[in-house]
């Protein structure tokens, strides 16, 4: 009896990020990717947005596997919040699983809960009696794969993010032999990405001249999952005899993942620890800064204003800062603020133009080649805004490979594509879908309680209480800091710690000035603590200094 197949998108359709696709073969569910997206400015204080996962929880006994195509947070990030409610074995390359572990630790959760199974980027394995093929693809993270599931009606092929690349290092190559083997069998459905970025993904041509001629130190900012570009920076350090220094522990964690997976080798002569940074010649030093999303931009802004924690690293006028971490629509404000502060610092700034340097996603010719090779019976654009999905569909219709309006589907989140021996059809079964908002490590509570406060109070309110003696010019009480609608949990504890230090320091400094009265003390607290809070949180809450004078 032929298989009955249902394909459902819970995220990643008519949006960028939050990718999550369910392929059901009879009663078995395979979840391909389970990611997140960055919030936009209509969601104040929200850290991430993940797919609504009611459907997975309701059918958790039928989930046979989570299949991860690669280690970017738009592919793995949602799993860290969903897994405890709907557990199942996770299959991915070594680097993908390491990135999942690292992201899970980053949001203060325990990665030991996962049932992980490491597979090679090109490999064949069986889960619950179903044959699955991973085929190595070229993307800007090592260990990236497309995924193929065999059914009695033909193969279901999911390309994920890729370019056709034949000149990169081995970790970033398309395995055309594996694709050719898959193409020897009928392809039932091809789910193809729709971002349409041109293949301008190599950073080296944009920054090599800087590595040759920079008068002082070079700072480079990259997102923690831009691993292809990390390898380019290391190669340039080797080529021009420079030493790379990791800006903080988050960079070290990412590099450790790469090295433990055999994807990166930094020669000892081209590495220096942070403890040695003050002893190195400036022109021999490259400082690598990494992070996730808007947190990286806040880190850059703190460095540019001299408010970063590690006082061994301060920007100098001869330094060059290469900002290769580009914004998306949801992080434009943080990006612009960080860039503005860099220019204010007086150092040399090189902004990589995102119109000329794009992530590794399939261009029109890549999409045509994949469709021509596999000749699918049904074509399903995924991953992208509606205009991108539609453009991908129109491209498929123009190719003359028997694709037409009856076998090219443009679904929305929550739609089902049902395929059986009688054909395929697209319809809406009322499957729950939508956004779940994340604040810290908590899923779901933000929309009802915290967001209500934030909508009333903008970015929240923080009360800074302290009592001083103007006669003795001293602080005479313990600081009291109260927050509403800003952050909570562990993040709140960390913020209170840092703001308390700034509150005490700014009051002490102002009290040392004989001409300063209580109003000047309040103004100093307002300015300095407010600036620190904006840098640390990316938000602009109402700051209320309650500085009382002891009688």
Describe this structure in words.
By secondary structure, the protein is of the alpha/beta class. It folds into three domains: 5-198 and 358-438, 4-Layer Sandwich (Metallo-beta-lactamase, Chain A); 204-351, Rossmann fold, CATH 3.40.50; 458-549, Ubiquitin-like (UB roll), CATH 3.10.20. Helix content is 31%, strand content 25%. The chain has 15 helices and 26 strands. The strands form five sheets. An eight-stranded mixed beta sheet has the order 7-6-5-3-2-1-19-20. Strands 8-9-10-11-12-18 form a six-stranded mixed beta sheet. A five-stranded parallel beta sheet has the order 14-15-13-16-17, with helices on both faces. A hairpin with a 4-residue loop joins strand 23 and strand 24 (474-475). Helix 4 runs antiparallel to helix 8 and helix 9 crosses helix 15. The model has no long low-confidence stretch (mean pLDDT 86).
Apparent shape: globular
Percent range for β-strand residues: 25-35%
Main pleated sheet: 8 strands, mixed
Helix percentage range? 25-40%
CATH topology of the largest domain: Metallo-beta-lactamase, Chain A
Instruction: Count helical runs.
Output: 15
Structural class: alpha/beta
Average predicted confidence as pLDDT: 86
What is the count of β-strands?
26
Q: Please mark out the parts with pLDDT under 50 across 5 or more consecutive residues, or reply none.
A: none
CATH superfamily of the largest domain: Ribonuclease Z/Hydroxyacylglutathione hydrolase-like
State the strand order across the main sheet: 7-6-5-3-2-1-19-20
SSE topology sketch:
Elements: E1 5-11, E2 20-25, E3 28-34, E4 48-51, H1 54-58, E5 63-67, H2 73-76, H3 79-82, E6 90-92, H4 94-106, E7 116-118, E8 123-127, E9 130-136, E10 145-151, E11 154-158, H5 176-183, E12 187-193, H6 204-213, E13 218-223, H7 227-239, E14 243-246, H8 249-260, E15 285-291, H9 293-304, E16 320-323, H10 332-345, E17 348-351, H11 364-374, E18 378-382, H12 386-397, E19 415-420, E20 423-428, E21 435-439, E22 442-443, H13 446-457, E23 461-469, E24 474-475, E25 480-484, H14 490-511, H15 518-537, E26 542-549
Parallel strand pairs: 3-5, 5-6, 6-7, 11-12, 12-18, 13-15, 13-16, 14-15, 16-17, 23-26
Antiparallel strand pairs: 1-2, 1-19, 2-3, 4-21, 8-9, 9-10, 10-11, 19-20, 21-22, 23-24, 23-25
Helix pairs in contact: 4-8, 9-10, 9-15, 14-15
